[in-house]
Amino acid sequence: MSSSPTQSISLTRYLIEEQRAGRINADLRLLIEVVARACKTISIAVGKGALGGVLGDAGTPGVASMNIQGEAQKKLDVLSNEILLEANAWGGHLAGLASEEMDTSHPIPDVYPRGNYLLLFDPLDGSSNIDVNISVGTIFSVLRCPDGVTNAADEHFLQPGTQQVCAGYTTYGPSTMLVLTVGNGTHAFTLDREVGSFMMTTRGMSIPEETKEFAVNMSNQRFWEPPMQRYVGDLLSGKEGPRGKDFNMRWVASMVADVHRILTRGGIFSYPLDSKCAPKGGKLRLMYEANPMSFLVEQAGGAASTGRQRMMEVQPTGLHQRVPVFIGSKKEVEAAVRYHAEHDTSHSSK
Ligand code: AHM
Ligand code: MG
Fold first, then answer.
1. 276 lines ligand 1 (CB under 6 A)
2. N or C end: fewer C-beta atoms under 10 angstroms in the chain?
3. Ligand 1 closest atom vs CA 122
4. Nearest ligand to the C-alpha of residue 215?
5. 137 near 296, Cβ under 8 Å?
């Protein structure tokens, strides 16, 4: 699996070394430091839980406020969004921001200088776990603003995942961890709460190619497409079935926590198309969830697909676009893709 020695390398030191090696510039370094600082603030709010008065729905009592996705917002969703917006407005490193919690992209206020990067984030992923004290997280993705654009609008964010220059997430679990890639491997940093610094704890995360563990919300089984029914059916039939081995299942319902487990010990995470989410294209969001996680997982030797296409090659058509997701151990993602291809081929030839 993972890791070479990390000595005592803080996130700041790691970023300075990446800058010296010419892999990132000063603006991208600042951007990552600012996001990391905002995540520390979110971590404190999440950690206070009920004592901080931050649990429960946003909005007025009995009338929860809704985001663009038509989902009820939690107080912590709104607070985390505000923390990230405020932290990133004034540094001069961004041309614009977009968030899962905002209808449209957010320009940098005129009073501040503009930079060349676009930042996208899901401020608090795994909202259904906030009130029950289960891990949640922040996911982010960084793109370059197209040349010559000074006022970034929604269309400028619509770049495939292969264009990302950085992606990461922070998981607020028993410990707070930041997992990051700038295209030179995927590295994990753990927050030293006493010192207030993210310290590198795994350099070069590496996902085993094969796995015996899958993550999916089984309660949706009857709504899945036929290839997904067949794929999971074969996983469940274990040693006696066509896959010839027994599989274990895990489902946290926080993508950050499920993907973190996969980056740590392998596995496949899937939120496939089902007849409930099909009209929207899937459940998870391409720009804020699927693409950044795909970049992190590919950089750790894993794979990510919609079941029919490499995730990072999907050309986005909307900021809040949703997609089916298969992500994790390379050979297992390839197996899931094979089930879809076999189904599609047999149906197109009829
Ligand atoms: P959110 O961004 O509104 O929190 O939704 C995304 C989350 C993922 O973290 C998780 O994998 C999935 O939704 C869980 O969905 P379900 O409750 O259908 O199992
Ligand atoms: Mg989310």
1. no
2. C
3. 2
4. 1
5. no
Domains of the chain, CATH where assigned? 11-202 (3.30.540.10), 213-348 (3.40.190.80)
Alpha carbons 140 and 156: distance in angstroms, whole number: 17
Question: pTM of the prediction?
Answer: 0.95
**Distance from residue 121's CA to the centre of ligand 2 (Å):** 9
* Residue of 78, 127, 259, 323 to test ligand 1 pocket, by largest number of atoms within 8 Å of CB: 127
Question: CB burial class (10 A; 0-12, 13-18, 19+) of residue 262?
Answer: buried
Query: In whole angstroms, what is the distance from residue 293 CA to residue 28 CA?
Result: 19
CA of 136 to the centre of ligand 1 (A): 10
Query: Which of 62-76, 267-281, 297-311 has the weakest average pLDDT?
Result: 62-76
Cα(311)–Cα(291) distance, rounded to whole angstroms? 7
Distance between Cα 283 and ligand 1 center (Å): 8
Q: Which of 132, 255, 293 to mutate to test the pocket of ligand 1 (most atoms within 8 A of CB)?
A: 255
Q: What is the pLDDT of residues 303-331, one digit of tens each?
A: 999 999 999 999 999 999 999 999 999 99
Ligand-binding annotation for 18, yes or no, is: no
